Amino acid sequence: MKTKIPLELAERTASKYLEMLAPFCKRIEIAGSIRRRKSEVGDIEIVAIPLMVRDLFGNPNGYFNLSLPAPAIKNGERYKQYILPEGINLDLFIVLPPAEWGVIFALRTGGAEFSKKLVTPKRYGGFLPSAYVVRDGAIHHVENGETLHTPEENDFFNLCGIGWIKPEERN
């Protein structure tokens, strides 16, 4: 069983690492159970959009590789997991195209059942309109594959017809 720490300690720890990563990000936020204000936290989840690195001529040359001074258990392009010295894991979710912030931030805020309903079509008891599918962190039209832009969580929620739901109320 995973060890949990009090919310206050998790918030302080998450803020420390968010500050380390922020200079290398276009956008970065704490998600997961901290954002949902759970009294005990099993891991820290941070969602980030890295700054794009450009060459001498201003051309895009890839994304800055976000890393922390802690051992990485997983070190993928879009997902990294670290064992922090504070005794808790940090999960770093990196929003790269075609992923959209609104989708990733909502799903990573959770809770697990709420996130599952967000990606499940209405005909199967979820929130997602049946004309769409969530793939690669973005919403795509089932028939033509067109990507629907969801720069904010509210855009995703409005598509689902559920309106804004406070993180504390997402279970």
TrEMBL record:
Gene3D superfamilies: Beta Polymerase, domain 2. InterPro entries: NT_sf. This is DNA polymerase beta thumb domain-containing protein. It comes from Bellilinea caldifistulae. The lineage of its organism: Bacteria, Bacillati, Chloroflexota, Anaerolineae, Anaerolineales.
